[in-house]
Design a protein that fits this description.
Elements lengths: L1 E5 L9 H12 L5 E6 L15 H15 L3 E5 L9 H7 L2 E3 L3 E5 L2 E5 L10 H11 L1 H9 L2 H21 L9 H10 L4 E4 L6 E5 L6 E5 L6 E8 L2 E8 L2
Parallel strand pairs: 1-2, 2-3, 3-4, 6-7, 7-9
Antiparallel strand pairs: 1-10, 5-6, 8-9, 10-11
Bound molecules: ligand LP5 and manganese (II) ion.
The site of ligand LP5 has 27 residues, from helix 4, helix 5 and helix 6.
Length: 241
């Protein structure tokens, strides 16, 4: 029996190659896979439940097929698709997870997060995050016409890409104290997250490097996934194809 973790696919109508790779990936999942965890940023940008485009409808259909294959699918919101909610979950037959979730497997406790909450040095992003997660702001945004929301989404994406060129790599990575503090708070020795697009397995900690942080990569030239099975936890990649 095994479980799979992916994040940061950034599916968009501009990248049909990633969508095709996603479909192939789901289709090729081993018979023994029981659960699929999507740790955020499945979509490049999500502006609301009522604005489903053709791509979103196709993704929902693909996820529903997994339910039919008895593979449970769990979704944690990312910073690009934090507006995904109950209606998407119901349509796709998936379960929404909170921002911090403890995955359990044979006595293993692993904290799952998208990863953005660990980037505490990126003060501008943290301020932006609090603003757009404010229920009143989300509520007002949802009242705007779809075309206006699309325009705001595009502007935010452009501002973000521009801003990332000006921010240092260190600022946009996780803050190590935030990582340790969060692991202590949730009493875990392992965590899996995405967001930073820096796939790697980090070993650290005071006692013999007993803590592990598995970082998923974004799907671009390669696709990335993590397998959790009786052997342990492994980070994998393959060319997008
Ligand atoms: O996403 P990525 O990897 O490029 O960069 C992130 C941070 N950027 C973001 C912004 C998203 O990319 C935009 C997503 C659009 C979603 C659809 C629209 C939903 C709007 C809902 C409103 C309720 O998350 C980036 C980080 C980077 O990760 C690394 O961690 O640095 O942070 C930023 O870009 C934030 C900027 O630093 C500050 C932006 C200020 C803009 C202020 C305008 C506020 C207008 C609010 C509109 C409602
Ligand atoms: Mn992200």
């Amino acid at each position: 029996m095994s479980d799979i973790f992916i994040s940061d696919l950034h599916l968009s109508e501009d990248r049909p190659d990633i969508y095709r790779a996603f479909c192939r990936f789901l289709h090729d999942l081993d018979e023994d896979v029981q659960q699929l965890y999507i740790l955020g940023d499945l979509f490049e940008a999500w502006i609301g439940e009522d604005a489903r485009n053709e791509l979103a409808i196709k993704v929902i259909a693909e996820l529903r097929l997994l339910a039919k294959r008895k593979i449970r699918v769990f979704f944690q919101q990312g910073n690009r698709d934090f507006l995904i909610g109950k209606s998407f979950a119901k349509a796709a037959d998936i379960e929404l997870l909170p921002d911090h979730y403890i995955y359990e497997y044979r006595g293993r406790h692993v904290l799952l997060m998208h990863g953005d909450l660990l980037c505490t040095d990126d003060k501008a992003y943290m301020r932006f995050r609090s603003l757009v997660h404010n229920p009143a702001v989300k509520g007002l945004f949802s009242l705007l016409p779809i075309s206006t929301r699309r325009g705001i989404g595009k502007k935010l994406r452009a501002k973000s890409s521009q801003g990332k060129m000006e921010k240092s790599a260190e600022i946009m990575d996780v803050n190590q104290s935030a990582v340790i503090h969060t692991m202590e708070q949730f009493q875990v020795t392992e965590m899996i997250h995405g967001h930073t697009h820096r796939p790697k397995v980090h070993r650290f900690g005071r006692d013999d490097e007993n803590l592990k942080r598995y970082v998923l990569g974004d799907w671009d030239e390669n696709l990335w996934w993590i397998v959790s099975d009786a052997e342990g936890i492994t980070l994998n990649s393959a060319p997008l194809g």
